[in-house]
Design goal:
elongated, 10 helices, mainly alpha, 275 residues
Length: 275
């Protein structure tokens, strides 16, 4: 249910910035068909990686717009109850669906595109007719389509061979929120499932995405890997800088023998050496 709600947010929601992150966080925690979720401000701050004031302002704007409904206000330790009404009953499109099926139209009308005949010679400026090609669709070429088909074939085989638990899918939502450049949701989900099916710990991928976000903080947007390419290149296997401890210092490696206090040399010749 949470995946359907997240698809709705990506494709139907008008939210932006911090509001977008808040909507995705709520959608990720949805477990029932009524699309309700309890979420505290602290949790939304953590998952949106934004200031508390920005999150509160974003929630107010979302409630005012109607995309997010506040059913119960927070009381004591009980978090507020929210609802995403637009996601109720929404079902994400099946993988691989791209609109109307290809092929001849009813009544034998065909596609309406004619293949150049034998007499077609192109422009009158020269004998370039033999270089004319049958129209092949968008100018992006067949490469991207072939790549997408390949990803979908791999993903479909994984889905048929393995079931993914709700905890694993929740971890995917955490990964999507923490990665600094989450794009191409279909390919990203497919590649994430491939990694999990191959034995990679989903928490390891999430932790690596968070470390990658810190490493790339302040860099130009074009130098940050998209989430699908990041997974395709198995960047979660990179070694990132260790997290600092409570003092803000990175952990240091212990040396053999441990720490020893300084002692003055007992050999007088040490002081006689030239510096």
């Amino acid at each position: 249910m949470s995946i359907d709600a997240m698809y709705w947010v990506w494709n139907q929601s008008q939210s932006k910035g911090t509001g977008r992150h808040v909507m995705l966080a709520c959608a990720n925690w949805i477990t029932g068909p009524d699309c309700t979720v309890r979420a505290s401000t602290a949790e939304l701050v953590q998952f949106s990686n934004a200031a508390r004031s920005s999150v509160i302002k974003a929630v107010d704007a979302l409630v005012k717009s109607g995309e997010l409904q506040l059913l119960e206000e927070a009381r004591g330790t009980r978090a507020a109850l929210y609802k995403i009404p637009g996601a109720v009953g929404y079902v994400r499109p099946e993988r691989g669906s791209r609109g109307p099926k290809t092929g001849p139209l009813d009544g034998g009308q065909g596609s309406g595109i004619e293949t150049p005949g034998q007499d077609a010679r192109g422009p009158e400026s020269g004998p370039q007719g033999s270089e004319n090609e049958t129209p092949r669709g968008p100018k992006t070429g067949p490469h991207k389509q072939h790549h997408r088909d390949h990803v979908e074939e791999e993903a479909s085989s994984v889905v048929s061979a393995r079931e993914f638990s709700s905890e694993e899918m929740k971890e995917y939502g955490n990964f999507w929120l923490l990665h600094p450049k989450s794009r191409a949701p279909d390919d990203t989900l497919a590649l994430w499932k491939l990694a999990i099916a191959s034995g990679v710990d989903p928490k390891k991928i999430t932790a690596a995405a968070a470390a990658y976000a810190k490493e790339k903080a302040g860099e130009q947007w074009r130098f940050i890997k998209q989430s699908d390419n990041w997974l395709r290149e198995r960047r979660y296997e990179d070694k990132f800088a260790p997290e600092p401890d409570a003092t803000g210092r990175p952990p240091l490696r212990a040396v053999a023998g441990g720490w020893q206090p300084y002692e003055d040399p007992t050999d007088q010749s040490v002081y006689d050496k030239d510096l």
